[in-house]
Amino acid sequence: MAMSRSFVLGQHYPGVSVIHRAGALAKLTATIILMVAVFVATRTPQYLPLALVLGAGILLSGIPLRFFVRGLKPIVFLIVLTVVVQMFFTPGTTLWSWWFLRITREGVVLALFILCRLVLLTLTSVLLTASTSPIELTDAIADFLKPLSRVGIPSAEIALVMSIAMRFVPTILEETERIVRAQVSRGAKIGEGSLVARMKGFIPILIPLFVSSFRRADDLAVAMEARGFRVGSERTRYHERHFGSIDVCVLVASGIALAGVMLWRLFL
Amino acid sequence: MPIELKNVDYVYDSGEPFEYFALRGINVRIDEGSFVGIVGRTGSGKSTLVEHLNGLLFSSHGEVLVDGLTLSRDRKVLSSVRRKVGIVFQYPEDQFFAETIFEEIAFGCRNYGFSKEQIDTSVQKAMTIVGLDPGRFLSLSPFQLSGGEQRRVAIASVIAMGQKYIVLDEPTAGLDSGSKLTVLGELESLRQSSNVTVILVSHNMDEVAEFCERVIVLDEGSVAFQGSTEEFFRSADLVNRTGLELPQSYRLARALKDSGCTLPVDESSSDRFLDSLHSWLADSGVR
Ligand SMILES: Nc1ncnc2c1ncn2[C@@H]1O[C@H](COP(=O)(O)OP(=O)(O)OP(=O)(O)O)[C@@H](O)[C@H]1O
Ligand SMILES: [Mg+2]
Fold it and tell me: What pTM was estimated for this model as a whole?
């Protein structure tokens, strides 16, 4: 049903654009570079090169703009709150005042800056997750963590746990829906009545969900062992990715954005 | 009064890149007190159709009427429809949560405010229908049963509510052939005694031929046939085209005919086939 899609896969928007085809590792690196650029800037105009590169990425991805707007929704409250706080509580030249409320010039400038910062950060991460499947993304994170295994952190296992978790989120959501439908058909009232009634209403959903998740975990463990999985041995990948020209372009573009922001900060 | 679907379309993930038309222009009518089969190959939309019958899914177009009441998201409508239409889902044992089988089966009855005595009698009756001995099973945990027993508990948990329409989505998958016949046979007698309408989704054509007077055949989300089961199985072309196979009795009767043998057998189900064969043999003096 709709819930699982809009919740999880809603983050990923499958497609075949250049952005989708770029390697996850390159995109993850580029995202980190862009985020660094977001924090390097000190004034709003410095965001221009960054916004241009990000805008180009969004257009090239072929993902509809409303998808990005939807990505902004969860942080609307945060944005409004910070903007309002900055506008009213920054000391400086008064632009407008009424009773105890006072908007300052500096406040407006700062609010605009923070607004840009939050929006750019969000759009950057939405572009990454929308154009990269969760599995590719965890693989890329695993690559990032790899150096840590030298100092004894089991990065391969962490990555495996992450990708298994990712893999099962949609499955479990689907399972939840199935169970809800079955219990609703048996007259269960979910999310109705008093607080106690609501809590009680969750029992017929949670227990079957736990049972099936444990069974699933068990099955998976057996299946993995049957196929020769051992903790601590060297892993190979099914999808080997080689660095391609798209990857280089993605990295160069994000590098340009960072350099642009830095130059602007130094010279303007 | 019947259940009617008028021009029902259903689109999964409408407006998303994965959009998928699971049902197209469905027009069906399920009469009260009938035993109806819903068949079709895997992915033809049977489960999707079934979920429209008690308002778990709402058609993207068209309307669903249960006893003349048009289904909508309205709470009152939903609860009155769900009170009438019970669904046993594919793999219903995944819904277990209670400590004892009694509690599991009583869950629906409690939700509908049955009195204590009503619950006791409904649970006992439902267990007998699915062939579970109440004396032995009532206080066991549903999780310690075999797969087939679990399936029967799940079926009983829906039957116990005493609804007017009972929909079963592949209820007999995983049951041995004996229990299959018991469960369906008991549903048939429930239908005869209490005028319950039984809607059976099945991949087992022998079962369908034996129990369903009427079938609704789905193919890629559309109704390919709707009418008497015998008529459907007589048109072998249609059966093939919709990716189904003929019941054994029809195949046997056909093989007999092809080899030039003209026995007057009733091919409409395996049981009736055997009966007619027996009586023919008796009539012609063979022992
Ligand atoms: N939650 C869902 N999201 C998207 N598509 C779905 C969903 N559920 C089912 N479908 C698709 O709708 C089609 C019909 O599915 P449905 O479950 O109704 O088939 P079915 O006839 O019950 O099959 P089976 O005999 O295997 O149970 C299938 O092609 C399936 O892939
Ligand atoms: Mg199905």
Answer: 0.76
